[in-house]
Predict the 3D structure of the following.
Amino acid sequence: MRVVILESSESVTQFAADEVCALLKERNAKGFGAVLGLATGGTPLGLYRELIARNARREITFANVETFNLDEYVGVPPDSPCSYHYYMLENLFQHIDIDLAMTHVPITHGVELQKSAEAFELQIEQAGGIDLQILGIGSDAHIGFNEIGSSLGSRTRVKTLTERTRQDNARYFGSIDDVPQTALTMGIQTILESQSILLLATGTGKAKAIRDTVEGPITASVPASALQLHPNVTLAIDRDAASGLANADYFLAAERNRAVASRSS
Ligand code: PGA
């Protein structure tokens, strides 16, 4: 795993935006559109603001980009401000030159959920797979809504949210009683099939989850620890989120060496 420890949440935003832009430009140069996996929550908001700004300055285009979001609540209609459909429109899609028909957020309203899950998996396959999956991480180390105990071989399906996740997300709903009990989420295996993965984390509230993800054993009790199995994962985290790492000095040294190597190449 590449662990990039950055000074601030703003540096995490800039790092993530640079990674996404590099992919979009590389694909554009080859005449392909990139396939991006997207996340919701508080952490990627800075990244989305930065992508909107770079798109407005015409540094990047989303014209041929296809996107797949990690998850959506069950029981929240897509036009509700609490839905992830709404979040994506509000925070990214309506501000960039993307074709909305190329954006996919799991559908949980007015459908049979298992069929919707299977259709979502098929759409990812038909797109040729995800090139770069952006992830946040829950304070309990969930990725997507793959909560503790999620099979490391899981695919898109309905998951019950933990009490902790519902508490963490109650801020968007007004009251914890209004937070749904379940969500449709990409599975851990679905996520692991992405070509590359970029996990973003900021703040001390994520420090334990990051330590367990990077330095703990691979276990379904820490769903993000499954990322240790992936050959191309980058964690971009601020100092607070890195504060629980025993090997932080090693990761900082590895990045210094990477910078030296890239200057001399
Ligand atoms: P957050 O959520 O970015 O709002 O902290 C992350 C997550 O639950 O995956």
User: Anything to note?
Assistant: Residues 41-43, 136-138 surround 2-phosphoglycolic acid (CB under 6 Å).
